[in-house]
Specification:
Strand content: 25-35%
Order of helices and strands: EEEEEEEEEEEE
Strand order of the largest sheet: 4-3-7-8
CATH class of the largest domain: Mainly Beta
Shape: elongated
Number of helices: 0
Radius of gyration: 21 Å
Helix content: under 10%
Distance between the termini: 27 Å
CATH topology of the largest domain: Tailspike Protein, Chain
């Protein structure tokens, strides 16, 4: 099953202190949300090459950091080990979905007019939506369930 990666938020992210000065030689620690248990980040979008933990920032305060589809606590520190303003930040979703949900993507693209749906157990598939009702005002009501 392929993993889904999220870049935080650019392939190379730069961290600065509250005065806007890059955190040269600073550190980025990644933990499982709500804990101090180290949780890996990665240097590649395939999530195959784990970063060191902490990630050591270069002389411009930059590093390449990809997160797995998990929730994280992230602590950004300067070169002296002092946490920066706003850190640690907890319950950071490493993907567009919260929690450790992994999705199984369809092997092929859908066809025109299809929507991506889930089984509720992480299996995604292409579905053709059917018209179930037309309102009095001509509004088309599609057979799609919306969750809030």
């Amino acid at each position: 099953m392929p993993k889904i990666a999220l870049v935080t938020p650019e392939p190379v992210i730069q961290f600065c202190d509250s005065a806007g000065v890059p955190l040269a030689g600073g550190f980025v620690y990644t933990y499982a949300a709500g804990s101090t248990t180290p949780q890996p980040s990665y240097s590649d979008s395939a999530l195959l090459v784990p970063n060191s933990n902490p990630v050591v920032l270069d002389s411009s305060g930059r590093a390449k950091i990809y997160l797995d589809a998990l929730n994280y606590k992230i602590d950004v520190q300067n070169a002296l080990g002092v946490s920066q303003s706003g850190y640690p930040a907890d319950n950071i979703a490493g993907c567009m979905w919260s929690g450790p949900v992994k999705y199984s993507w369809p092997a092929a693209d859908g066809t025109a007019g299809q929507f991506l749906t889930t089984s509720g157990a992480g299996v995604l598939s292409w579905t053709t939506v059917t018209i179930t009702n037309v309102g009095d005002d001509g509004t088309i009501i599609l057979g799609v369930q919306v969750f809030s």
